[in-house]
Amino acid sequence: MLLAGGQGSRLGVLTSKVAKPAVAFGGKYRIIDFPLSNCINSGVDTVGVLTQYQPLRLNTHIGIGIPWDLDRNIGGVTVLPPYEKSTHSEWYTGTANAIYQNLAYMETYNPEYVLILSGDHIYKMDYEVMLDFHKQNNAECTIAVMPVPMEEAGRFGIMITDRKHKIIDFEEKPASPRSNLASMGIYIFNFKTLKEALIHMAEQPALDFGKHIIPYCHENGSSLYAYEFNGYWKDVGTLNSYWEANMELIDIVPEFNLYEEYWKIFTKSEILPPQYFSDQSVIEKSIVGEGTEIYGRVYNSVIGCGVVISEGCEIRDSIIMNHVTIGKNCRIYKSIIAEDTLIEDEVTMGVGEEIPNEEFPHIYNHGLVCIGEKSVIPQGVTIGKNTCIFGESKVRDYKDLHLESGRNLIKAGDE
Q1: What is the pLDDT of residues 191-206, one digit of tens each?
Q2: What are the CA-CA distances from residue 353 to residues 30, 191, 263, 408 (Å)?
Q3: Residue 415 has what pLDDT?
């Protein structure tokens, strides 16, 4: 069961029209491709994807599951949005509530074990190894955990275990943590245990695994175990962590490698021609998606599919998503530009002082420029750091052709 209904509000305008798991990542993928590919690579062939917020692009992307080999007569992938019932209709109000509302779907397969995943993390994990660990320990619930630095442990749900990895206690975001094993939000339950806990706790508002289901199982003597994972795992929940995770893909020896033969990342690909690099183009240490035409210079960046970068441009340390067109002689530094955006000629982005964002300093920070999808940036403007633009902006929206660092330009009707 793959939880993919989250809004991802800390990604700002990147998720104003699209669910977080459907946000583009790594030049040709979407975030949800990583847990879905983990399922296929681990031999999981029955997947329910729970959607809620802005699901259109996610539903279109998943379709009937062909890219992941999940188009099957028995099992395969099923998209599970909230639905109207005869007495009342109900949105998913918490992670466990979403699973509770789909008990009937799970029961049709009469499973012995249920794997519960988040749709918005970047990692590679063999769930079969975790399931073997679950069976060996006769566990009723196994929680994947990851060691984190002790000073950061207060930000997570922390598991306290004995020498045999059995969970003896846990704390949600503790002020003074007793362990550094953080829950990754990946669970394997015996279906019988999960069903009993969900039915018993169903009336809790915003029913959640960390707050309600796990404590209930623990208090009722269920055997809970912690499965320690030591690979690469990244929660791309903030703009800076999203930018960092993309930049880590292009390291000389990337910690997270998209090019491994034995653990492929599957995705729905558009039918596009090959890339084209002109004789004036320069590309260094970058990922470039298919169908992209580059006539300028690109350094240390992740460029999506169907992008046009015109002559005289210089792009550095940036993420350019699919079908963005960048005009002539633009200078773009440390920017995230969402899909279907038009940048006209002579635009400069990501320059000037690093001033905190005036409205949303917790979202737009670390010197990034963020441009929402289908935006238009007019010719000749200069955009400072920690800024956000969303919508079809005109020259008159910029004072002296300039958007100062820390300012936002969000056109009415685009939020």
Answers
A1: 999 999 999 988 888 8
A2: 32, 55, 42, 15
A3: 44
